[in-house]
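call fold(seq) -> tokens
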Amino acid sequence: MNAMEQARQQWDRVAKPLHSLGQLEDMIVKIAGIQETGDVCIDRRCALVFCADHGVVAEGVTQSMSDVTARVARSIAEGTGNINLMSAASQADVFAVDMGMLYPVAGLIDRRVAAGTENMAVRPAMTPDQAQRALRAGMDLVGEMKKKGYQIILTGEMGIGNTTAAAAMVCAFTGCSPREVTGRGAGLSDAGLARKCSAIERALAVNHPDPGDPMDVLAKVGGLEIAGMAGAFLGGMKHRLPIVIDGVISAVAALTAKRICPEAAAFMLPSHMSREPAAIRIMDELGLQPIIRADLALGEGTGAVALLPLLDMALRVYHGPHTFRDLGMAAYTPQEESK
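ret:
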């Protein structure tokens, strides 16, 4: 009997209607398969927040400038960021990772590939080598976290301009127009949203990313932090760790990983449905249904860490004493529905 079947049978022993914890049960079964044991445990958990800057900010696609990336990354490294505060409530460690910020700060894990990307509205965001190096760095970092004993990894990001890159990647992968999948990010005006869509249209026209080649899309219109997260999702498959998707930026990285290796999706856990327009389309392609619908759009991994208390509660029931046997009653069995 494999681990997933063991987990399903364990759920069926719990004194409750069958599958009455719905998607939470499914997630625990999926984690059992990843960990290759019905004795599911995610006590050691961490968030990896990948940080980088984007040259497309020069096109006026954001409300703030690239120095904000460094300011927020510093707060995460110092333990005072939004993700740190939320992670403290879920007993998750937080690591900020410099994949390519314009203004490096102390205290981050250094996986720096370049000082930000180029302006994708003018030229490719990255060279193929830079995209490969960033992807490999994310994969390797998951291996390092596993050696430290972590059992589940939450993805997060910080990078002013990265919703523009994410939307461009979705357009390249799906053939959608920028206006269909581009949101307001951190709160753009109508004029700002128009500039953002225009920049994406020019990026696609200038670079001609190949939708059949995920690394080409990543290099031409992606970002260094997106590449790092895509590598983390591939690292989840390589090192058999569940990797939690955060918002739309993280989801684009997950989609990239799936396009590179479809089997990687078996190691991904969705957290919330971002309010960015591209989110539903990405999740449909990933074949995943986020549990949380809370109109979240903060990033940093905050949506991913919000999944942990739900999983913890589910595991209390899964491992708990409230079973049909302990109550001295017959277990529920599947019943045929009348037609």
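The mean pLDDT is 94.
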